[in-house]
Amino acid sequence: MSKARLYSGMQPSADSLQIGNYIGALMQWRDLQESYDAFFSVVDLHALTQPNDPAELRAKTRRTAAQYIAAGIEPAKSTLYVQSQVPAHAELAWILSTITGFGEASRMTQFKDKSSRYGTDGTNVGLFTYPILMAADILLYQADIVPVGDDQKQHVELTRDLAERFNSRYGDTFRVPMPMIQQDTARIYDLQNPTAKMSKSAESDAGVLWLLDDPAKSAKKIMRAVTDSEGVVRYDRDAKPGVSNLLVIYAALTGRQIPSIEDEYAGRGYGDFKKGLAEVVVNEFGPVRERALALLDDPAELDRVLARNADKAASVANGTLDAVYDRMGLLRRS
User: Fold this and answer.
1) Residue 117's pLDDT is what?
2) Is 221 a catalytic residue?
3) What pTM was computed for the model?
């Protein structure tokens, strides 16, 4: 029996992924690749919705791919590739844009938030059509499930609507995917502002744990993380957001339950707790960082791995695109 198919991806929007990406995506992907036919992409076309220096974008794309592999996404098990190396993504996005209503596209929450923040002149058409390109990413591979955060659920719902609309108009072509939403308990918050989600675009670097940070720097950030004056290690998201965030990180990286960690540090204070967490983070990130840097030391070999996987992805994507073009009545080259 063939495995169900999975698709997911992340933008190459920083030199390093952060711990929220690792816990919320990469750890999950690493497990899912064992039971699914998994396609994971570095979605560099999506990154073009923000201004980029070309050399920096190219470097960030390699660095993101290297971190995927170093974190356990194995190219021999999963199809790990760079989005722009499979032209079918852009082609299908155009097709899907012709069956997407202007109203439904303008209702996407992320677009509304960003356009209100940056204004009309600071918002490009690519940002408006971002969810349509995401739909193309998913539908090209006939994905059954799409692991996403809460903030992307609306985009997967649009993908489902477009798949059903196309199937209704032109005949069964696309598999209608289901979102797989990460649990709220895996949400990681900023170390200095534990009411805000940890983000690559954080105002202060002090609140972000980067995968490629020097271990000593990561430990120092944890020791300086915001807590409270109570001095008791216990989970209370509303009253103790800083300590609760650190407990979530500790539990996620060790596989332990939060009450077990609370018991271990009962009566010991925040200093011991932070030292323990720093050791956990350094032990987890150290091998990942070492392998990622080794991969980046040989960019030609990394590029060869990505090219092989792009060929594999294209063989699936092009089959879907051919069926789409045929059903829509586009004249194909003989």
Assistant:
1) 74
2) no
3) 0.91
